[in-house]
Amino acid sequence: MKVGNIVDFKKEIKRKDYGLFFIIGEQYSQKNAIEFIKELKKEYRVLSIFVENASELPALLTSYDFFSPQKIFLVYQYSQYEKSIKKMIKDIVVGRKFNKDYKILFISDKMPFKFVDSPDTLIAEFRAFYESDLPDWIKSYMRKNALEITDEAISLLIFVYGNDRDSISSELQRFIEVRDKEVINAKDIIMTGGRKDAVFQIIKSIYRSDIKKTLSLFYYLQEKDMLIHLINREIIILSIIKASGREDALKLLLKMGIKKFLLNNYFLLEKKISYAKLVSYNDEILKWEKEIKTGFRTLETGIYHIYKLTKGRKL
Questions:
Q1: DSSP 8-state assignment for residue 52
Q2: To pair with 156 at 20 to 30 A between CA atoms, which of 149, 186, 191, 274?
Q3: Secondary structure class of 284 (helix, strand, coil)
């Protein structure tokens, strides 16, 4: 059975008790799907499998635990496992040799291996969520919680977080919990503060090659992975200005939903940064993002790449 959105996924889970899941695609929907299963199967013990403990999975899948007979296995990073481990896992899954009291969830960007659909398998392929879809989603998210949000506030959220619905929902959740006003505007988004301020201070200190301040701010930043996305977004905006010139860039960036009052700082900053510098920043961000996705530790990896971004040389 295949589904393509979170609503159909939840309906199908309630309709039938599946044992094997392939949860593919957009991360926000993946997390939503996982949390729904965990809530529905509260009596199950949840085990997360990554590269580091992948070698344990074949034995775990075929064993019986008297003290904890029902388990949910969340299988991440399958493509990074050793070939022999991947083969054993695939043989167990395809041959249905795993314990029938277990639920196995493969979580990845694409199908981990070729698989013939079967009655006890649910494949969820969540499509990428584009920035053009976000305004309606944000409005719907807030209206479900009896709140309204202005278009300017929505534009600012998208500017800061792009299509990262995890970060956007976390930001919105604060207004939902506090409920001190019925309509959220751009000033409220700016005033909620701390972490975005810290992020933009980090970006400024990178441009100024202030390694001490950059590392200090990064160390205290709670959502460190968000920094990758924001630096990349800044690079894109500055590159558009470099390539198009002020007037054409202004028209293009306004079409992208970036408000005019946010653009002046970029026009000033663009004059101080060379195109070659932007290219070097982009190369470093791509390396950083790849390492995070393949399981490198966020703090250590961040320190390494921030040093390279700020100092502009190899360690």
A1: G
A2: 274
A3: helix
112 and 106 Cβ atoms separated by less than 8 Å = yes
| CATH of the domain spanning 194-311, picked from 3.40.190.10, 1.20.1250.20, 1.20.272.10, 1.10.10.60 | 1.20.272.10
Q: What is the pLDDT of residue 190?
A: 58
Confidence of residue 314 (pLDDT cuts 50, 70, 90): very low
Q: Which residues pair with 108 in a beta bridge?
A: 24
Question: How high is the pLDDT of residue 197?
Answer: 54
**In the block, which residue shows the tokens 């195109």?**
275
172-230 pLDDT, tens digit each = 888 888 777 889 987 777 555 444 555 666 777 777 777 877 776 676 565 566 677 77
Q: For residue 264, how many other CB atoms are within 10 A of its CB?
A: 9
First to last CA, the chain: 50
Q: Give the gyration radius of the chain's Cα atoms.
A: 22
With beta carbons less than 8 A apart as the criterion, state whether 298 and 225 touch: yes
Report the distance separating Cα 190 and Cα 160, nearest Å.
10
